[in-house]
What does this fold into?
Amino acid sequence: MPGAIEAYGLVKRYVTWKRKGLLRRRKRSVEALRGVSFSTQWGEVFGLLGPNGAGKTTTVKILSTLLLPDEGSARVAGYDVVDEAVLVRDSIGVVLSVERGFFWKLTGRENLRYFGMLRGLRGKELEERVSRVLRLVGLEELGAADKLYEEYSLGMKARLALARALLHDPRVLILDEPTLGLDPVSARRIRELVVRLAHEEKRAVLITTHNMFEAEMICDRVAIIDEGVIKAIGSPRELKAKIAHSVPIIIRFRGDKSPEIAEKALRAGLEVLGLSVKPIEEGYVARILVRSGEDEEALSRAIEILARLGFSIRSVEVSRPSLEDVFVALTSRKSEA
Amino acid sequence: MPSSFFDVVAAEFYAYTRFYKNNRAMMIAAFIWPYLMVLILLGLGYLFGSLSQYAVRMGVRNPVFFIVSASTVAMSSTFIVDEVANYTLYNRWNGTLSYILLTPMRLPKQLLAASIPSTLISPAISVTSALPVALYFEGLRGAAIIAALYAVIVLGMIPLAGLSVLIAGLVLTVREETNIANSITPFLLLVSGVFYPVAILPKALQLIAIAVPVKYVVDIARAIASTGTFSHEVFLAIYALTFMAFTYNALVAPLLGAIEEKVKRYAPF
Amino acid sequence: MHRSSKSLARLTAVIYLHSVRTWRYKYSFINSSINTMLWITIFLLGVIMFVPSRELPVVAPQVFWGITVWNIITYTVVYISGWTTWFLVSMGLVEEHILHGLDLPALLAGRLVTVLAESAIAVPLVYFVLRGVAGPMKLVDSVGLLFYGLATAEAMALGYALILATLALRLSIPGPMLDITNFILFVIGGIAAPVARLPAPLRVVAILTPYSHAAEIVRYAATRTMPYLGLLAEVLISGALAIAMPAAAYIFYRFVEKHYLRRYGVRGVGRM
It folds into this structure.
């Protein structure tokens, strides 16, 4: 079975014109993508993260056949996005924007009926599928299926956009910021649905987002893109490990024995990069610096050592980096994002 | 600091002139439009009949200059009615209406203040476009006629101010993509006999015409474009317009509060 | 799914969409019909002032049909090319339709539902006004030819509107603003008046104006005014143009889609 999405060295340049005086214009070429490569698997939620203008939407548009790459190639569901665009379009469900792309004077159901017909669906099958996706995204239970689109809240619009993407039962979902601006309830509903579609129904999901909390929560793997280049790729845990070479563990404890005994025992029992034990108001505090990825094991070992020496543990802190730290560390234009 | 009526007028004046500065194509279109009207009327008239026939029936000595003036009137005299509604719609599309309405001023006053600059500038562009023809046929007197025409067009729009706000309110409460009441302006022009005598209209329309301010603008335009002087009839028409300006706006005023309340209750932003 | 079955479903979808939208925007639609009728009436009454009374029975039907053809052409152009820039692009619907496999010209051709519905209201109203001024008149002599003339005019207008809509996607200028020839060709291009009535140099312009051939057929079908180039020639030329103009528009759109839309993206959607 081919990979769900495979992108090889995608390059995209835009030509812009800079006005100089009344009549003269100067041509300028802007590279939006500079050799983007990645692949995603079936049953996986793959996140594409990056600041504004990083190349996320350009990548999404190339993968959904709306834009032609200047260099490189991409296959979606086994089909080439340039030469087999029609087959790609039949295999994908796309959310390009959560607040546009529908007819205002049609109801949610009528909009879906229309786009379903464009996919070749008719009669009973069309009605069944429309009702099914409306239920799936929760618009039926909100009583919004037969309301005009112009009366929808942003959350409802986002749900309808996802419903349309699912209407023809595509194997690949490409979602460009599907929770942008949504309230927590609507965002959670969409996140749960996305994970279920990938993990239970084995669809492939490519999602772009600015929301690091969301990416960390639902993405099996993420790629961080900036200035048209993939800066890092891997699971959130792997990426975090990449930027954090050391992890500080802070243990507060008390007991009758001296802190020097505790420090000596910890040094002997752990492989540490740094260690200090100091008295505080009520007992002692141990600051232990261990290698990234070894923090969980080191923590349990340290607790075991201190407990064996008769110390009682008051609190424990492990300061692990978040995906947001990874994002900030890897992208160059943090303030704009 | 609370904004005054004049602050809003000044802000809108700035926005309107910037719009034309940055959209020169629109400015050119505004100059060309009256001539397209003239082209159609004169072209068809020439193909199917004769100019002399038109001059006799209309009682004008220079039919070309008259048609140019009449086209300017047709373009401008009802401008305020569509402009207030279009201003409202345009800002709703842009998402700027809510911000405009955040100013402490009452809605009707706000809409009127906002439409004043365009109501003054747009007819000015239309009459200026007629200037070359006026100068060609009438010399400097033509320029004076054009200036008088502009003053009369602006005077003719004052009685329509209250009506304009009513229509804008209606447009806001009906959620459609265009100004659903913009057929009111050609109706006002139709009964006012802009290119023909009102006498050829059915009796009922002639009676309606008596109460329509545009008819008096057309009468004045016809008189001054034809003779170049302010006759007794012109002054009578000016008195009629002044009377209508007070009466119509006084009649409409009580309705404005109701429409404002309806708009705010419906919150169509 | 079978290809023809999919095409039928798409055709149904397009007609469904435009019918529902026309109904939902009924106030705008009815207002627009009345607006059209009133403006046409204003000009019509103006034109009648030029015409000697004895010639009115002959001239009135000619003017009526000239205006009808122009109304259909103009509204086709405004409703299709204007809708593209002011609505489809700004609402992000161009890309959605590409994704759903529907060519933009097919979606836009569906706007004819709205155009024809509007003309069906406005044109009879204009007739009643004209009859009120010029008296009863015979308007149709050959229904078949009249239908053929109007249908070919509509097909040509569709082609022209699609070209303007496609150009608007490329040039960032609203389609109707590109239609600078509308009023000029109405008068000198053989739409408003029979080509034979035009001064000699303008006849060349009229013959080069595609719509004039359809208008000549309509006038013949209504008042037996013989076309300047002869009836058979006009029937053949109109038929050929009615096929060629939409076909050319479709080819042009495909070219722009491939070389512009898919290369640089649709304006106003996303951040690229």
About this structure: Residues 6 and 39 of chain A are 4 Å apart (CA to CA). Chain A has two domains: 5-242, 245-320. The longest helix of chain A spans residues 184-199. The longest strand of chain A covers residues 24-40.
